[in-house]
Amino acid sequence: MASILLTGCSGRLGIAVAPYLESLGHDVHCVDRVRPHEPYGTFAMADLTDYGKVADVMAGIDE
Q: Which residues are CB-neighbours of 39 under 8 A, at least 6 positions away?
């Protein structure tokens, strides 16, 4: 399956989408400024306005 970078995984939509994507067999990479209560997949804390941090998070994730 696909590797998916999910931003906002701690928000209302993200906490529903992350487990759904995992249930479909996708490799989920979660990114948010706040750690989720129940993390799914891999998690990286990052602010999307920080270009350097976003580039680090995206490194190694399939296109």
A: 9, 30
- Return d(Cα 62, Cα 2) in angstroms, integer: 8
- Burial-class residue 51 by CB neighbours within 10 Å (0-12, 13-18, 19+): exposed
Structural domain spans, the chain: 3-58
Instruction: Express each pLDDT in 26-58 by its tens digit.
Output: 999 999 999 988 878 899 999 999 999 989 989
CA distance 26 to 11: 20
With the CA atoms of 39, 20, 7 and 33 taken in that order, what torsion angle do they form, in degrees rounded to the nearest 10?
-20
The whole-angstrom separation of Cα 50 and Cα 13 is 22
Determine if the pTM surpasses 0.85: no
